[in-house]
Amino acid sequence: MESQLLSLVEAIKSSDVVETRIQLLTKLGDLTFHENSDLCALLECLTVFWEDFTCLDASQCSLNKTILHVAAKYVNSDLSGCLLQFLALGTKASKWCGKHLKMTIMSSEESQEEEHSNLFFQLLVDFLSFSANVIEALTRYGVFADCASVDIVEKFITEQLNLTKDIASEIKIIISFAPELLKVVHKVIDTLMSLCKDYSSSVSWSSCNSKPEKNNNSIDCEPAFANNHVINVMKLTIERLCELGVLAANDGGSLVTILNMSWKGVVSLLQLGKGAMTKIIDVENIILTLISLVNAPLRCAADAWSSSLKDTVSIAEARRIFLPVKFYLINVVKISSLYPFQAYQVYKEITHCILIISTFGILLSSENLLNNTCEVFSELLERTCVDLLHSLLNSSEVKNNLKLEILDWIFSYECCSDSADETSGSYCGMNSMVEIFSKSCETMPRMRAFMLGQVALFHTLLRYSVDLQEDVKLKLAKKLQWLLDNLVEEEVYSSILQLQIPVPYGSGKTLELVWQPVFSVLLDALKTFIIVVSSSLAWVEVEYFLVENLFHPHFLCWEILIELWCFLFRNAQEDTMKDIVEQLCSVMKLLASPESVFIPGSPLRKTARIVCLLLSYCTSLVEHVYISVMDERSQLSSVLFGALILEGFPLNSLSDNIRTIAKQKIITDYFGFTGCFDDILSNNCSSDAFGLPVFMLSASLQFHQVTMSDVDIKTLKF
Fold first, then answer.
1. Which site from 86, 129, 218, 407 is most exposed, i.e. has the minimal number of CB atoms within 10 Å?
2. For residue 604, how many other CB atoms are within 10 A of its CB?
3. What distance in Å separates the CA atoms of residue 497 and residue 375, rounded to the nearest whole number?
4. Superkingdom of this entry's organism (predicted)?
């Protein structure tokens, strides 16, 4: 040790006057060292001079501030032999700053000397800047591989992370120095992230097969130990960043920068880990933490809007609520994409969150004062929720049977039955908005309040089904029956018919939200799905679904099926159209009976109605259908023809010759029936199709297939 350094150190040790020690320490900062050993000696002395106890007046802060400035002068020099001494000083100073911060906060309401407080906070700013520089130095000198050095590094990093968390938790009280402190906290986190990235590049991740043990006696100082050290540093940083992220999320908005940096840092470090982090990091818990952050602002909004909503919620207010939700969701999507199997382990919680959001969104549309909110919701959250679900369903790391388990959980048939702990009544209103947050994920499939949200989520999956893998499309096609079974619920189908929702069209700057009836939106999604699966294995399931529900008893479901049949027919090739019509005619022949022709809701009449609707899109097949049903060998040809006429069969689309024959048959049958009407009554020989000619002529006149010019009105008998 140089004589000048030695004499100054001895003078400082022998002095009891703080001011004198400060002057002597300042002289230390003016020294120039040519040997690293002398710089190491200086730093060891500075560490000793930094007292552990918190000061009661400004003098101790002044002393420590001077020590810090002396050390800071050398932090950017060659530290190859004394980096550990800088770390030791930083660890001790960080602990002291943490204790002093708590003491300052606790005494903030008392008559504390303002000068002392300001001096400490300035010292805190300087120390964090010093710490960031030390961390930057760590990146320059690589990974330590000896036990003692590793222990010093990890303690230093631990204390820096603890201090940044303490500062963030008290930032609302530290008003005057808050901007400066947040700036240096940001710098510390940023340099720690850089350190982890540099460290990770030196790790052989394939050799990280077991969780590192913090036992210096049993681990050789080999490269494997260096690997474990890097993993420990990354684990520690991830855990503290998660804590910091939760703290910033609960702050109410003043820590937005810290919030962004902490969660983005978590995702970045998990990405660096290349899968090995699952052995030491509880990825599932990180996902659950983010999900809780997603639910919290939505729950608060639901409570506020359900209790005292009097005015329209502004777009700005809606964005203030939903932007953080989107941020948390995006991070869940990223983590789930990186670690899909770990995400699967908590799929119930993930899907519960998605379903809450889906239900929340559809309930927003039921209140006019929330129209702005509904639009912002659709813009920010709808696609992100789909991306989250896709991260599970499209992952090659999640087996097919597990993906199907997820879909079965979301779209469970259990939800169609009444829950024992739920009373019947409306579940499409503001009260339901609060209710959806009151149940755990385990009760989700049995909650009727989620039924409308499940339908909305199913619609969204259909709408974005082009991004799904083939096995998921197949399972989704098998779930089409689930959709119809839910639509028959009274309040579901009434809501489907009543509500309108904003639907995004376009992308980027051309994105436009258009309010449309839910029924129309659902139909569009089903049509999209039909197009997507038209050339895949799932098409067989779609065909089966369309045929199986051809005679669905519920009016809304049947209207949906008819619209899908028409859509399919409109977009099919002519050969396919012909095949469809022939199959439907074959079904009619199987269903034909004299009594069924008079029942509008009978399978025969429903099939005839579908045939007539389809023929309106392909008039070239009208004649083909007429010839098919008027087969002279069929005893029920009159019944088949009658069913078609009653449903508006387009006679006018027939060729002139056949159209004339068809009209003559209708008129002749009518006159034949009326001419022997008295004989039929007197002989009591009425058939099951009694009166059919009258109904056929009446329908033909109504649909303008037959006009008065075709019939002598004077001869009509009623």
1. 218
2. 28
3. 19
4. Eukaryota
Residue 509's pLDDT is: 72
Q: What is the distance, to the nearest Å, from the Cα of residue 343 to the centroid of all Cα atoms in its chain?
A: 13
Structure tokens at 286: 């990180």
* Spatial distance between the Cα atoms of 278 and 537, rounded to a whole number of angstroms: 36
pLDDT at 712: 57
Task: Name residue 512's beta-bridge partners.
Answer: 505
Q: What is the mean pLDDT of the chain?
A: 86
Cα separations in angstroms, 272 against 202, 338, 351, 379, 435: 11, 10, 27, 31, 40
Residue reference for tokens 């700005």: 316
Residue-wise pLDDT for 452-486, tens only, equals 999 999 999 999 999 999 999 999 999 999 999 99
What are the helix (H) ranges across 201-346? 223-249, 256-272, 283-308, 315-338, 340-345
Altogether, the residues listed in the chain come to a count of: 718
Integer Cα distance of 97 and 34 in angstroms: 32
* H or E segment to which residue 152 belongs: helix 147-169
Between the alpha carbon of residue 89 and those of residues 51, 104, 152, 616, the distances in Å are 11, 22, 10, 87
CB 652, CB 662: distance < 8 Å? no
Supply the Cα-derived Rg of the chain in whole angstroms. 39
Q: How far apart are CA 573 and CA 565, in angstroms?
A: 14
pTM: 0.87
- Cα 226 to Cα 143: distance, rounded to the nearest angstrom: 7
Per-residue confidence (pLDDT) for residue 78, from 0 to 100: 76
Using CB atoms within 10 Å of the CB of residue 141, give its burial: 0 to 12 exposed, 13 to 18 middle, 19+ buried: exposed
Mean pLDDT over 141-166 rounds to 92
Q: Phi/psi at 500 (nearest 5 deg)?
A: -125, 145
Place of tokens 């968390």: 165
410 Cβ neighbours under 8 A, 6+ residues apart:
351, 354, 355, 454, 457
Four-point Cα dihedral 369, 371, 376, 378, nearest 10: 130
Decide if pLDDT at 430 tops 90: no
Give the least confident one: 52-61, 110-119, 412-421, 663-672.
412-421
* Contact present, 380 and 418 (Cβ < 8 Å): no
- Candidates 180, 192, 61; CA nearest to 135 is 192
Phi, psi (degrees; rounded to nearest 5) at 221: -85, 70
**481-536 pLDDT, tens per residue?**
999 999 999 889 899 999 999 998 877 677 789 999 999 999 999 999 999 999 99
254 contact partners, CB below 8 Å, separation of at least 6: 171, 172, 178
- Longest CA–CA span in the chain (Å) reads 141
Beta strand spans in 401-527 (E): 500-505, 512-517
* Cα 408–Cα 423–Cα 485 angle in degrees, nearest 5: 35
